[in-house]
Amino acid sequence: MLLILEKFMLKTNLLHNPNAGEEDFTEKELVRLIRKEGFECTYSSVKQEGWDEFDDRCDFLIIAGGDGTVRRVSKALVKRKLLQKQFPLAILPHGTANNIAGALSVKGEPKDIVASWKSGKRHRFDIGKVQGTPDEMFFLEGIGFGVFSKLIKVMEKFDKELANDVDEKIKAARAVFYDVVTSYEARQCRIIADGSDHSGKYLLVEVINTPSVGPNLILANGTDTGDGELEVVLVPEEHRGKLEQYLLALINGTDMKPSFTTIKAKHITILWEGRDLHVDDERIKLDKPVEIKVDVLPGVLEFMI
């Protein structure tokens, strides 16, 4: 009987970021947990050479880390050649914000998350292709201009000073974001979304595929990561107070749903007068305003849910 079970045991490779989150899981603990739930499991640290030399005998890959680690593994898969095997991905959220896991409703105790993989349920996940930056890029969460990009720039100075506590990091980022919003100068932006013109003066323009970005800032409720469309979130100068109110509610622990202008689109062209730009959590330094083109690539990735 044992031999029959082993024959059908799914093989997986754990891709672990040992520095993510609060570092509360060791390599041995994670592997032991996964094997206890009936999966064959090998281990790779994404901090070591060769972690992306995937074994084609694996049935799926497990990512234990935050949004940055999920993006890093996804990037390695997107770069694979057409005839190479593409692996479904499973996430053990292990970072600060975990926006991608949240968008897929992957939450709870690690033991329960691992056990859920036995159901075999999968969800196709779109990505956004970005042209116009120094290098062609893609995103899982979003690309944006304005106040959120400025937040990333400011937080780069504080990150090393913050305690290694997830909740404290998120609280600090939200407080800094509020300060940025109150003083940021709105910029003119030309926006063409699926042929429609939405140009104007904005504090924030975000093209997103997940409901939240950054320190768990929900910009669009109900965003479907696999519907073949992206959400364009617009916060004009006249809605500065609305954004400030939302951030204060988050800082004070009050439950408040955002109500920003949102447009669904597959092809977006943006020319932002400023130089504050980010792709996921990476800030891009621009010497001058450039025209950015964003296209949705439907169902490129597949996640276990």
From TrEMBL:
The keyword rRNA processing does not apply. Keywords: ATP-binding, Kinase, Nucleotide-binding, Transferase. It comes from the Bacteria. The keyword ATP-binding applies. GO terms for molecular function: ATP binding; ATP-dependent diacylglycerol kinase activity. Residues 1-134 form the DAGKc domain. Its EC number is 2.7.1.107. InterPro entries: ATP-NAD_kinase_N (IPR017438), Diacylglycerol_kinase_cat_dom (IPR001206), Lipid_Phosphate_FormReg (IPR050187), NAD/diacylglycerol_kinase_sf (IPR016064), YegS/DAGK_C (IPR045540). Signal peptide: none annotated. This is Diacylglycerol kinase. The lineage of its organism: Bacteria, Pseudomonadati, Bacteroidota, Cytophagia, Cytophagales.
